Amino acid sequence: MCISTTYHMIKIAIFASGSGTNAENIIRYFSNQHRIEVALIVSNNPKAYVLHRALQAKVPTALCSKDELANTQSVLQLLTEHGIDWIVLAGFLLKIPDYLIAAYPNRIINIHPALLPKFGGKGMYGEHVHQAVVAAGEKESGITIHYVNGQYDAGDIIFQATCSVELSDTPDDVAAKIHLLEQAHFPNVIEQLILSTASM
């Protein structure tokens, strides 16, 4: 006897403000998946290169200004229309409002380019983080994937990976090491987290 099992396709929205290398990597990773798909790219920056990457990958996009993000109805309607189950922040520079966190409890995750709780908080993103790591004389840095709550970079930690920081390293050197960690781990952690939650 043949038993057919139909799975609900779990849909991700990626929020990004910049170039979108992480977003593109995640899209590529899930492109042949039968359980998870990237269904929407949301950006607050109309000039963000992530929008071009999404277009190339044939993933729908939406622009969302700071004011629009504060409008509970418009964003929730957008996410509902696309059937979004999870939100992944990949270099998104706006603070996620409380109503969105309440609508997606423990289903919004972020990646931070340092080992939280160090070098987190408002204004700590991108090159600012790597400059601070080098200036502090840290011997290691890394990535932190965490749940999003009402404070910058303060949600429960899901996963961390580390890299060494040499005395001769510049902020750009550290950034390159962090980029490799992001590319290697972020999609896989997303997959494991979502599928483990779906099976509960």
Characterize the structure shown.
There is one protein chain. 34% of the residues are buried. Helix 1 runs parallel beside helix 7 and helix 6 packs across helix 7. Strands 3-2-1-4-5-6-7 form a 7-stranded mixed beta sheet, covered by helices on one side. It has 2 domains: 105 residues, Formyl transferase, N-terminal domain (Rossmann fold), CATH 3.40.50.170; 91 residues, Rossmann fold (3-Layer(aba) Sandwich), CATH 3.40.50. With 200 residues, the protein is an alpha/beta fold. The two termini are 27 Å apart. It contains 7 helices and 7 strands, in the order E-H-E-H-E-H-H-E-H-E-H-E-E-H. Strand 1, helix 1 and strand 2 form a beta-alpha-beta unit. The model has no long low-confidence stretch (mean pLDDT 94). It is globular, with a radius of gyration of 17 Å.
Oligomer: single chain
Report the strand count: 7
How many domains is the backbone divided into? 2
* Secondary structure category: alpha/beta
Please give the largest β-sheet: 7 strands, mixed
Q: H/E element string?
A: EHEHEHHEHEHEEH
What is the fold named in CATH at topology level of the largest domain?
Rossmann fold
Task: Catalogue the unreliable spans.
Answer: none
Question: What's the arrangement of strands in the largest beta sheet?
Answer: 3-2-1-4-5-6-7
Tell me the overall shape: globular
- How far apart the termini lie comes to 27 Å
- CATH architecture level-2 label of the largest domain: 3-Layer(aba) Sandwich
Taking all residues together, what is the mean pLDDT? 94
Number of helices: 7
